[in-house]
């Protein structure tokens, strides 16, 4: 993991935890590994990966191209975890 992020990154990827940007990564593989680690340790957290280039969050309804495996892994663990707007 690299550093905490408090705003949307202009490039790369970031992990979003319960609606707050937390960590930025240069690659999607790094972001996915970090998200998987967090989800294993804290299964009730709502964890998504933000892709700065595409400006979408994987694991949310905002990302139409997310496959079932990604949604299961990173998607909402709680009803209040859904992205609004």
Please state the CA-atom Rg, rounded to the nearest Å.
11 Å
Q: How would you describe the shape?
A: globular
* Uncertain segments: 60-73
Task: Count all strands and give the number.
Answer: 4
The spatial strand order of the largest sheet comes to 2-1-3-4
Distance between the termini: 29 Å
- The ordered string of helix (H) and strand (E) elements is EEHEEH
Largest sheet: 4 strands, antiparallel
Structural class: alpha+beta
Beta percentage is 15-25%
pLDDT averaged over residues: 74
Q: How many domain regions? A: 1
Tally of helical runs: 2
**Percent range for helical residues?**
10-25%
Key structural traits:
85 residues, alpha+beta, 4-stranded antiparallel beta sheet, 2 helices, 4 strands, globular
Task: Describe what you observe in this structure.
The chain has 85 residues and is an alpha+beta fold. It has one domain. The protein is 25% helix and 22% strand. It has 2 helices and 4 strands; from the N terminus they run E-E-H-E-E-H. Strands 2-1-3-4 form a 4-stranded antiparallel β-sheet. It is globular, with a radius of gyration of 11 Å. Mean pLDDT is 74; it is low at 60-73.
